Predict the 3D structure of the following.
Amino acid sequence: MDNTVIDAHNISKIYNKENIPVYAVNNVHLHVEKGEFTALVGPSGSGKTTLLNLIGGLDLPDEGSITINGEDITRMSPNELIDFRLKNIGFVFQSFNLIPVLTAKENVEFIMQLQGIDLGKREQRIHVLFDQIGLSDKLESRPSQLSGGQQQRVAVARALASKPKFILADEPTANLDSQSANNLLDIMYKLNQEEHMTFLFSTHDQRVIDRAKRVITLVDGRIVSDTASQILPA
Amino acid sequence: MMILIMAWRNIWRNKSRSFVIILSVALGLFAGIMVQALYKGMMRDRIKSLIYTEVGHLQIHENEFKKEYEPSLYLQQLPSLIQQIKQTPQVKAFATRSIAQGMLASTTGSSGIQMNGINPEQENVVSALKNKLIAGSGFQNQKKNQLLIGKKLAKKMKLEVGNKIVLTCTDQEGNMVSGAYRIAGIFQSSNSMWDERNVFVQQDDLNDMLGIAGESHEIVILLHQDELTLTTQQKLQNQFKKLEIETWQELSPETDLMVSAVDITSYIIIGIILFALAFGIINTMLMAILERTREIGMMMALGMNKLQLFSLVLLETTFLTIGGVPIGYSSAWLLSTYLHKYGLNWESMGEEMMRSFGFSTTIYPEFPTDKIAGTIIFVLITAFISCLYPAIKALQLQPVEALRK
């Protein structure tokens, strides 16, 4: 059985093509299987976020192809990509990016509504997700009433709401204190272990790197190392 | 549903900015509705004045009479016609008139006029002529050759109550005939043009001049309700096929045209107000979109499609726009209801000008209930047009670029 979730072939993203081309991502091959807990690391400007954007279908590569769950997203129209992202990919952003006018519950429910899931199933899933992130008592809180860590946990719940094939997280712990970062990592790790949810995240955070099953290092848009690291208990 | 909630909450993210737009819409609507209320009040008064003091709901003439005002074309079989009218339940009152086109001459000059030979008692019911008298005591019983003249004509001819004038016209055989009359009263209606053109004498006096004793050229009918005009016209026309039976709209097509023109004008005014407001709404929405670039990018990244994003911008614009509707409407309703009761005096704006168009100087605005639906449609169209540019800006955002902001 093919467990491949992400398959990127020779992908490059080039800026300033007309003058002096700058390779944000340079001829990258990446293969991620279901249940991986992978960290993309590298110095600032190494292309981590660009690579995540390409894999997430937010941006298109100038060269190469990206196959997600067997579907080539580089051949999709913008509208098909929107629909594909909604059904297949969960996003967690560095600065939480919750919708400020919606409550925590509504932020998560919003994605399910976009998917056309009926009210009963939405309610059920919301309770499961908020139990998982440990914020069942914060359902009606607005993002401004939550701490950074709590907001990022809601963002994880939102990413999981659509039952995606994998979750892309761009520096998820960058804006969190140690305690909050550890809590978030525990939740993500638990989801990975228990539900085999695939995570691919960019990070500078050593705590994240330490807990990743696999660490890919990018420098100047190229993968310079790709190694499984020792999983350390929390 | 969530998009609806988001749109509603989004407009309150910047309360003062939203309030300014909502109040602008309210103010614009208030102004537009007040214009409609004033127009409606003016037109209602004009129609009322036309029906109840000038032409009545219906008039009956011999078929060819109004072409040349030939005195010999008086109504045939008048007694049976009157009998039939009396038996028509829709008819509240009627008056017979003899009409002649001719000349009024005095020592100071002459003027072309229409002589209306009337029965004062009938006329007081049908056209309230007595109420329009501003000088003199009107027709005195037993006195012959008395005349009522309009204020404007009296002023033009420098005539006063008690002065003598000469009326000249042709009789039914085409002979020139004249009669000396004494002014028994000066009247003033809300239509100075009409006042200048019409004089009233007693019907017997005019009939003597025309040689048509006991006859009438015209029957003016007043109905119990304005709405009965068309059905009563049809009913009478079926009974008297050879006679010309006209409604007030046919008798005064310029008034009917004015009502339609005023209706259109009031919509144009509202359109202009909302068009100006649209720029304010566009500016506000554009600011709201630009401030939320990152958030919009994030929603697009998560899977919000273009139609949903457009709906969000459209709903926000609609909420902002229709938010002012109840305020605009209720304030316009309050003021127009107050003014409907106490009147708005425009005498200082030019009494003569108002009267020359047939309007009284005190206007009683009427809240335009019948135009609410039309105005709301205008507002919604404005919202839709106003949201287009900001929505296009939002739709042009690329999630990856928007997320960097």
Q: What stands out?
A: The first strand of chain A starts at residue 4 and ends at 15. The two ends of chain A are 32 Å apart (CA to CA).
